[in-house]
């Protein structure tokens, strides 16, 4: 390949099972996709969002007014997302504590520990040894 000045295999000759997207294809002609495909879609969507965010920041990088506008829009978007969450932070904390108690069973139990009874061992074996 190097003699032909090719440094990578042309796309038409690359088999699908060699690529990263090999698990997204149906197996044996079935119509359902693998479970990993849903996670890959989510990761791809998050990556696209980060790409758009950084491209917006790079476009506005030299203009202060544009950066302030972007910041105000991000703050309003964040407030909208917080409004969608009906639970307050205190409710979330209590729910988290309930989940921890459910899995770990870390309920507080009051245990009364008493000191051990005093043994009466004075002379219990000395008389038996001498009688033999």
UniProtKB/TrEMBL annotation:
It comes from the Eukaryota. It comes from Chenopodium quinoa (Quinoa). This is Protein FAR1-RELATED SEQUENCE. Residues 113-132 are annotated as: Disordered.
